[in-house]
Design goal:
single chain; about 425 residues; alpha/beta; five-stranded parallel β-sheet; 15 helices; 17 strands; about 35% helix; about 20% strand; globular; binds flavin-adenine dinucleotide; flavoprotein; mitochondrion
Length: about 425
């Protein structure tokens, strides 16, 4: 039975969801073998290509992932696009179970006129560009304008704002935006009226953040801080109760020149309040628009159910609905929200569900060929995967190139160069 044979398990995607799922499976089953397939040449998903460069301590989770990848029951196969180079049914045939952990690679569009103008980018592409994602390395955003408008107030929007405001030489350190050198906040105290009274109802993290904003917007700064702000050459602000209506073109229609925002007001109370337009609008000039209103998963393969509205794979506790032996974890399971710690908890739960099913005899019995079968398929299709030790060579090159300029690493951006360095 499958229980006597070492279970062969396949994970699709090598971001936090993929690695935490693999880690839990290896820890809680002494024989399980886990193969991780990844479409990029390099591992770690958004830890490498999303998390901002001034959050190096967050990127340290890769040490744990590296330990997992070095296990002799785990293998990393980069440069394999599941859904194109190999299909999900082929993986299901070769393995006892398949876990889809392929994240949310698309962005939500604004759906407003002018969105296609040069100078408008999704935060997803912009983050990919400053983080060295090969597909975004030619993005070349024109940063010569005076004003950038970021649509959205989420974590990604704040990352993008901080990166735009921070001089490159400071990106090695962690600084929070309020104290960012050379910058001053522009917050309208009117936006914060009445918030003081509501602080006590707020959950702790939001309370701390709101208190900080409230202090910054309404308190008179001390002398030293006032002098710092007066000298600042860059400024940032948050605007509330505005909804993007149209990207305004330059007179020649060739690029972005501003944005029209609908003024909104809240109806209802508390967490369920929603914004409705008042009928007023406000036009603001800017040379760059970054829409940061969320990431979105894509369907991977016609054989896998997909909920286009929620942008997730329909599942119960990580078991893909109606497809025995198929599981999901991370952003593709619960949508593109939550930090790495949330993704870890969620991935452990998926792994637990899989191990329970294995224990209950719900996975296919008898031996499965695992990677041997997939390797043959890939080779017949001219696909040459990248192993974890290949990645460790590329990693060493990046680190040594970075050392020359005092950076933690100088990322390789060109897949062709990566392959050359590996002697391909
Ligand atoms: P991902 O990390 O996206 O991993 C998915 C992997 O699947 C990728 O490697 C992708 O290449 C691969 N893949 C996709 N399609 C295929 C395919 N067809 N075949 C094979 N492989 C495929 N969290 C924090 O805790 N701290 C932070 O500072 C932080 N900053 C963030 C900044 C940004 C800009 C973003 C977007 C997120 C940030 N997060 C942060 C959240 C964190 O990145 C996510 O919680 C986490 O990465 C989600 O993990 P995942 O594995 O589901 O997705």
């Amino acid at each position: 039975s499958a229980q006597e044979q070492p279970p062969q398990i396949c994970v699709v995607g090598s971001g936090p969801a993929g690695f935490y799922t693999a880690q839990h499976l290896l820890k809680h089953h002494a024989q399980a073998r886990v193969d991780i397939y990844e479409k990029q040449l390099v591992p770690f998903g958004l830890v490498r290509f999303g998390v901002a460069p001034d959050h190096p301590e967050v990127k340290n989770v890769t040490h744990t992932f590296t330990q997992t990848a070095r296990s002799d029951r785990c293998a990393f196969h980069g440069n394999v696009v599941v859904g194109r180079d190999v299909t999900v049914p082929e993986l299901r045939e070769a393995y006892h179970a398949v876990v889809l952990s392929y994240g949310a690679e698309d962005h939500r569009a604004l759906g407003i006129p002018g969105e296609e103008l040069p100078g408008v980018f999704s935060a997803r592409a912009f983050v990919g560009w400053y983080n060295g994602l090969p597909e975004n390395r030619e993005l070349a955003p024109d940063l010569s304008c005076d004003t950038a408008m970021i649509l959205g107030h989420g974590n990604v929007a704040l990352d993008v704002a901080r990166i735009l405001l921070t001089p490159p030489e400071q990106l090695e350190e962690l600084r929070e935006m309020v104290q960012l050198p050379g910058t001053r906040p522009m917050l309208d105290p009117a936006d914060f009226l009445g918030l003081q009274d509501r602080l006590k109802e707020m959950p702790r993290p939001r309370k701390r953040l709101t208190e900080l904003l409230l202090r910054t917007a309404t308190e008179k700064p001390e002398r030293e801080e006032a002098a710092r702000r007066a000298e600042a050459s860059r400024a940032w602000g948050l605007r509330f109760l505005r909804s993007p209506q149209q990207v305004l073109p330059s007179p020649d229609g060739q690029r972005v020149a501003g944005i029209r925002l609908a003024v909104t007001r809240l109806e209802g109370v508390g967490e369920t309040a929603w914004a409705v337009p008042t009928g007023d609008t406000e036009d603001l000039p800017c040379g760059l628009v970054l829409s940061s209103v969320g990431y979105k998963s894509r369907p991977i393969d016609p054989s896998v159910p997909f909920d286009p509205k929620l942008g997730v794979i329909p599942n119960t506790e990580g078991r893909v609905v109606d497809v025995p032996g198929l599981y999901c974890s991370g952003w593709v399971k619960r949508g593109p929200t939550g930090v790495i710690a949330t993704t870890m908890t969620d991935s452990f739960l998926t792994s637990q569900a899989l191990l329970q099913d294995l224990e209950a005899g719900l996975l296919p019995a008898g031996p499965r060929p695992g990677h041997a079968a997939i390797e043959a398929l890939l080779s017949s299709r001219g696909v040459r995967p990248i192993s974890f030790s290949d990645w460790e060579k590329l990693d060493a090159t990046e680190v040594s190139r970075g050392q020359r300029t005092g950076k933690p690493r100088e990322k390789l951006l060109d897949p062709q160069e990566m392959l050359r360095l590996l002697g391909r």
